[in-house]
Amino acid sequence: MRILLIIGTGSFIGGICRYLLSKFIQSRYLSTFPFGTLGVNIAGCFIIGIVFALSERTNISLEMRLFLATGVCGGFTTFSAFSYETYILLRNGQLMYAIVYISASVLLGVSATFAGYSLLKLA
């Protein structure tokens, strides 16, 4: 039960941060393209890269790793919103936006994970 509370607390924090950052980013663009969700996904991938690099480099407890990776990052990243927004773009006939959104999410997400991981491996 303790582990579930740790993960749940992290998810609560991550979900709130996701909402705030997504709205902040999206408010900067006058477009139907989901820049807010894209930005959150890239940031979440970068953060999880850092968490796993730290867990290899230091003695982060299992509880802290679960809190950060499963909880905070799991609540923060938004691939369920990603899939829904992609569906909406396709349904609305915005094929090019859908292709760009899918490609950018995957390519930039993997790159951000690598960058976050590599950042701490170099230090």
Task: Walk me through the structure.
The chain is an all-alpha fold and 123 residues long. The chain has one domain (2-122). It has five helices and no strands. Helix 2 (35-57) packs antiparallel against helix 3. The model has no long low-confidence stretch (mean pLDDT 93).
What order do the helices and strands come in, and which of them pair?
Elements lengths: L1 H25 L8 H23 L4 H15 L2 H13 L3 H28 L1
Overall geometry: globular
How many structural units, i.e. domains? 1
- The H-and-E topology, N to C, reads as HHHHH
Helix content: over 70%
**Low-confidence residue ranges:** none
Structural key phrases:
globular, 123 residues, 0% strand, mainly alpha
Would you summarize the structure shown here?
With 123 residues, this protein is an all-alpha fold. It contains five helices and no strands.
